[in-house]
Design a protein that fits this description.
Among the domains are: 29 residues, no CATH class; 39 residues. Helices cover 41% and strands 0% of the residues. The chain contains 5 helices and no strands. Helix 4 packs across helix 5.
Length: 125
């Protein structure tokens, strides 16, 4: 509490009047001020263009936000596995070289080799 004999010294200290922030919260606030603000003018210009464009052709509907198939095929098809194992194990080609040739990551090749070396009856931990 405040020092002194009163329990509620608000009026004497001038602290119970309405307070306002002397500056706006955002430093770019002045850019939005109408009608001289830069961003305000830009928004008004875009809105005006939008109104004039409504009379012309309808907007293009975007079906896909990301290019490519919805479910891409990750990894290598099993038909390539023997060739990859041969190139890495027997011909001692680097994982990066083999991965670049097949368009996959070196991690994919590494996991393929681990899978190929693992006995068939064994489960992963």
């Amino acid at each position: 509490m405040f020092p002194g004999p009163k329990r509620d010294p608000g009026n004497d200290r001038g602290t119970d009047r309405n307070r306002r922030v002397s500056s706006p919260l955002s430093p770019i606030f002045f850019l939005f001020l109408a009608p001289s603000g830069t961003l305000y003018q830009r928004v008004q210009r875009l809105l005006a263009e939008e109104v004039t464009a409504e009379g012309s052709s309808p907007p293009v509907v975007i079906k896909h936000r990301r290019p490519g198939p919805k479910h891409p095929a990750y990894g290598l098809p099993t038909s390539y596995w023997p060739t990859v194992v041969q190139r890495v194990m027997e011909q001692k080609e680097p994982l990066r070289t083999v991965a670049a040739a097949y368009g996959v990551s070196p991690e994919t090749i590494r996991r393929l080799l681990l899978h190929a070396q693992k006995p068939h009856g064994q489960q992963e931990a």
